């Protein structure tokens, strides 16, 4: 084989990998697709590494594993992407840092009063709502994997849970400022 043939085979393998990962919802940005096509031996391991390498919290990591276990391509467009999980995890981390900061201020400054107590309660409530939404979605996806019920009822349950999760995420994003 000539060098041109090897180059074409290399590019074809990269393109096939990029298309496969895009169809599974693992990558979606044009930069990722270009890097996978051109430098797939170096870039693919980073893209395919476990979600733990992203530094995700345990709850978001477990949800990511449940999403990865759903192999039906019809479900892929409904489920959060890696980028969405990363954004969600950063929002949770910001809110957890805010909780630690509010706790520290309240122990130092007892005169902060009712407003600080209200902020702490709201922050805690939003974190609990988000954790509940993450866990409920994870449980539903695990049940879906082992169930024959992949019809409209299951789709509606997952869509409702995703809406609740995205609403909770928006609440965290709005409250982070």
Description:
The protein is an all-alpha fold and 177 residues long. The protein has six helices and no strands. The protein has two domains: 49 residues, no CATH class; 125 residues, no CATH class. Helix 5 runs antiparallel to helix 6. The protein is flat, with a radius of gyration of 21 Å.
Short description:
This protein is mostly helical and 177 residues long. It has helices at residues 3-23, 30-48, 58-68, 82-108, 113-146, 152-175.
Mean pLDDT: 78
> How far do the termini sit from each other?
59 Å
Major sheet characteristics: none
Choose one word for the global shape: flat
Which blocks of ≥5 consecutive residues have pLDDT under 50? none
Query: How would you classify the quaternary structure?
Result: single chain
Helix content bin: over 70%
Alpha-beta classification: mainly alpha
H/I helix tally: 6
Count the beta strands.
0
């Amino acid at each position: 084989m000539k060098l041109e043939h090897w180059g074409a085979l290399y590019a074809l393998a990269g393109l096939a990998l990029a298309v496969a990962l895009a169809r599974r919802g693992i990558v979606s940005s044009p930069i990722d697709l270009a890097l996978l096509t051109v430098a797939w031996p170096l870039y693919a391991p980073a893209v395919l590494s476990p979600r733990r390498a992203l530094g995700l919290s345990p709850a978001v990591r477990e949800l990511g594993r449940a999403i990865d276990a759903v192999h039906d391509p019809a479900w892929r467009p409904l489920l959060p992407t890696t980028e969405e999980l990363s954004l969600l995890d950063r929002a949770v981390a910001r809110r957890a840092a805010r909780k630690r900061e509010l706790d520290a201020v309240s122990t130092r400054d007892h005169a902060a009063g009712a407003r600080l107590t209200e902020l702490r309660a709201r922050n805690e409530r939003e974190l609990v709502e988000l954790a509940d939404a993450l866990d409920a979605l994870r449980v539903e996806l695990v049940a879906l994997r082992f169930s024959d019920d992949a019809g409209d009822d299951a789709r509606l349950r997952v869509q409702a849970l995703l809406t609740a999760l995205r609403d909770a995420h928006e609440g965290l994003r709005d409250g982070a400022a």
